[in-house]
Amino acid sequence: MAALISTYAVADRPLKARPGVGETISQTLTMARRAYIKMMRNPEQFFDVTIQPLLFTAMFAYIFGGAISGDVKSYLPTIITGILAQTALTASMARGTQLREDMDKGVFDRFKALPIARIAPLAGPAVADLLRYGIAATLTIVVGLLMGYRPGGGVGGVLAGWALTIFAGWSLSWIFTWLGTVLKTAGGVQGLGMMIMFPLTFLSPAFVPKETMPDWLQHFVDVNPVTLVINATRDLMNAGDVTMSVVWALVGCAAVVAIFAPLSVWSYSKKL
Amino acid sequence: MTTTTELAVSASGLVKTFGDFTAVDGIDLEIRRGEVFGVLGPNGAGKTTTLKMLATLLPIDAGKAEIFGVDVKAHPHQVRQLVGVTGQYASVDENLTATENLVLFGRLLGMSGKAARAASEELLESFGLQEAAKRQISKFSGGMRRRLDLAASLLSRPPLIFLDEPTTGLDPRTRGQMWDTIRTLVAGGSTVLLTTQYLDEADQLADRIAVIDRGVKVAEGTSEQLKTSVGNSTLHLRLSDKTQVATAAAVVEKVTGDRPVLTPEAGGVNVPLADADRAADVLIGLRHAGISITTANVQQPTLDEVFLALTGHGTDSPESAVSPDNSVNSDIHTEEVA
C-alpha cells in the first residue's frame, strides 16, 4: 500500500484555471450516468411518468370528451396534446424535489470539493431526466392511439410533437432546479412546485378551448408558456405544420433555460 | 501554474459567521509540507468550519488562506485540484456500489473509463474493500464507509489531504485500522490536516497540534508540549469529606508547588504531576494532614484537562467554567507551548 500511496503526493503540478467546455460536457454526462443508475434502482421515480399519463389520458378523455367535444374521439386531438404538456410539467417538477433531497446528502459535499464545473451536478440529472420525459410522452401518445386518436400530422408530425414535449420538459425543469437550490426542504420545493404547476396547466388550452373562459382569463392564457407549447404541439401533431407557434414555443423554452440555468448555478455555488 | 511555497497551508485571520454566531474568529494556521497537522477541539469549536473554508466548501468571510501558495478565495478551482477532502460524514453515494462510486469520482476527475476502473480496483484492494466492491454503500458498516471515503479522496493523488474527524463514531478496532491507513498515507509523503476531538488521536498521528476553542486558537505545539502544560499525568483524588477540599488543595500545593484543579461539588482534587512518582508524596502529605480519600488513580492528561488548563473551562459544558479562584489558569501560559 505504501508504494501505491507514495505516488499520490504530487504537489508541484500544473493547475487549470477553470474547467473547459469539453470537460464540462464529459462531467455532465458522468453525472447523468449516476442519475440514471439511481433511477434504475428506485423504480418509484417512474411512477409519475408511467401511471399518471395512462390514468389521466383515459380519465380526462372519457369524463370530459362528451361534454367538451361532443364525443370522446373528437376530443382526443385536444386532450392528448394537453396531457403531453401537463406530463412534461409534472415530470420536470420532480427534478427540483430530487435535487433538494440529493443536495442534503454527504455526496454533494464531495461534488463541491472536486475540481469540476459547478453546473455538472445540476445538468447531469437533467440529462438523465430526458428518459423520463421520453417515457411519459411515448405512453401518452400510445394510449391516445389505442383510444382511436388519429393525428393529422402523420408520423413526422407526431415525432416532432414528441420531441418538442421532451424539450419543453427539460427546459421547464430548470425552473424547478433553481427552486431546489433556493429552498431549504424538499417539501417546500414540492409545495411551491404544485402552486406553479396547477395554474400553468389548467389556465391553458390543455383541456378546454380558451374561448370558453372569461376574457380576463384569456389574457393570462395567451402569455402562459404552457399555452405556447400546447399550441405548437397541436400544430405539429394534428396538422403537421411548422407554424410560428412552434418557433415561439422553442424560443420560450430556450428563454426559460437561459434565465434559470445560470440562476441555478449561481445559487448553487453561492451555497458552497 | 506551478506552486513553489514551502507551506502547504497558510491562513491568517480566518473568520466565519453564521448570523449572530461567530463560528471561527480569526484563526491563523501554518502547515508545512509533509507534515501531519492536528486541529484539536470539542464539538462546535470551529474545526470543521475552518477546514471547510480551506477546502472551498464555505466562503471565507474575512482573512486570507493559501494552499501551496494558491489563494483560496481567488482561485477555488485550482485549490480543489490540490486538496482531497474526507468529511465527518462519509461523502459517498448511498445508492451506488463501492466501485461505481470510485469510478464516478475518477471520471469526474477526467480519467478515462478504463483508468478509473483500474484506479478503483487498486484503491479498493489497498483499503481491504475488494470483497465489498459490488455492494451498495447503504449496506456498508461505518468503518467501511470511512475507508471508502478516504479512498475516494485519494483518487486525484492530492498533495494535501483534509481529514475531518476520521474516526468519530467508530469502534476501537476500526479506529485502529483507520489510524494505520492514515499512517501509511503519511509515510508516502502527503501533507495531512486532521481534525479531531480526541487528544490520543492527535497524539498518535499529528506532528503538531493546534487547540481550537470557540472559534479561537488557544494553543499550538507538539503533543508533548501540550501535555506538559498540564503535567505529564494527573492524580485524580476523591475526598471522603467534601468540605476538606480547600485544605487538601493547600497540602497538595505545598508538596508539588502547583495548585490542583478542584471539583468541590464532588469532593474531587486533580493533581497535575510532572512525574508520576510524585503521586506517593501527595498521598503521604494528605495522610499527615489527616485528610481521608475514597479513590485515587493516576492518568495521562485527557483533552478535557488540556482544555481546562488552556481555557479555564471543560469541553462538554463550556458555560460551567471552574470559578476563577480555584482554576489553574494562572499557572499555564499558552505562549509557552505556542
Give the class of chain A from helix and strand content and strand pairing.
mainly alpha
> What's the overall geometry of chain B?
elongated
Summarize the amount of helix of chain A as a percent range. over 70%
Main β-sheet of chain B, in a few words? 6 strands, mixed
The gross shape of chain A turns out to be elongated
Q: Structural class of the secondary structure composition of chain B? A: alpha/beta
Q: What is the count of helical runs of chain A?
A: 11
Question: The CATH topology of the largest domain in chain B, please?
Answer: Rossmann fold
Largest interface: A-B, 44 and 56 residues
Full CATH superfamily name of the largest domain in chain B: P-loop containing nucleotide triphosphate hydrolases
Report strand % of chain B.
Answer: 25-35%
SSE order of chain B: EEEHEEHEHHHEHEHEEHEHEEHEHH
Low-pLDDT runs of 5+ residues of chain B are 317-338
In the sheet with the most strands of chain B, the strands line up as 6-7-8-3-9-10
The radius of gyration of chain A is 21 Å
The percentage helix of chain B is 25-40%
Q: How many structurally independent domains of chain A?
A: 1
